[in-house]
Amino acid sequence: MKYIIVGIGNFGGYLAKRLTNLGHEVIGVDSNEGRIEMIKDSITHSIVMDATDQAAVKNLPLKETDVVIIAIGEDIGASIMSTAIFKQLKSKRIIARAINDLHETVIQAIGVDEIIHPEEETADRLSKRLEMKGVLDSLEISDEYNIVEVKVPGRYVEMTVAEADIRKEFYLNILTIIKIEQKKNLLGINTPYKNVIGVVTPEYAFEAEDILLLFGKVKNIQDFLKFGD
């Protein structure tokens, strides 16, 4: 996959190197020439550029890029402006770093696909989650076991939990099911939030937008994701 990472500080720089080591193509962008100089030999491409300059951003290969990650951690204004520019230029998927609650509210309003909090999610964890295509979120229990959020594959829609029998076929346990609903944020704008339905019964019929919270071995999770493609 191809990533653009904007903001090559401690978090963004480590994430860029980690994703490169995992075999992905990474373009690192920062207005600080010193940061780019330090990382240029460790990632695929590095560019000294002001990501709040729309004309400059237009020159990036956005159509070929799978994910743009706004990892700016010091300048909230630059983070908001660059996020808005990448959104306006129709980037396929935008993941943005939130510094505080107000910043999070603003970038939610812009319409990013995902918000991360580096104080809660390490670069290692994020890189592993991005590596497992189809995983919305993950929690590493051990080297062998993970808990993941994944959208229900289309083939299971309208089937009951008993009929799908994911536990028997993939040795995965469905811990619960999450539904994405809407509520108004501080600006009065509808934003998504997770509604957890609790204990899943065998009679429950999967719906198209359901998110499954699964527990199991990493290999079995990967097999399940491949099966759902």
Descriptive notes:
The chain folds into two domains: 2-126, 3-Layer(aba) Sandwich (Rossmann fold), CATH 3.40.50.720; 132-228, Alpha-Beta Plaits (2-Layer Sandwich). The protein has nine helices and eleven strands. Helix 1 runs parallel beside helix 6 (123-131). Helix content is 33%, strand content 28%. Helix 2 (33-39) links the parallel strand 2 and strand 3. This is Trk system potassium uptake protein TrkA. It holds the Pfam family TrkA_N.
Quick take:
With 229 residues, this protein is of the alpha/beta class. The protein has helices at 10-21, 33-39, 54-57, 76-88, 101-110, 123-131, 161-164, 166-170, 218-228, and strands at residues 2-6, 25-30, 45-48, 67-70, 94-97, 114-116, 135-140, 145-151, 173-184, 190-196, 211-217.
Q: Tags for this entry?
A:
single chain, 229 residues, alpha/beta, Rossmann fold, Alpha-Beta Plaits, 2 domains, six-stranded parallel β-sheet, five-stranded antiparallel β-sheet, 9 helices, 11 strands, 28% strand, globular, Trk_Ktr_HKT_K-transport, Trk system potassium uptake protein TrkA, NAD(P)-bd_dom_sf, RCK_N
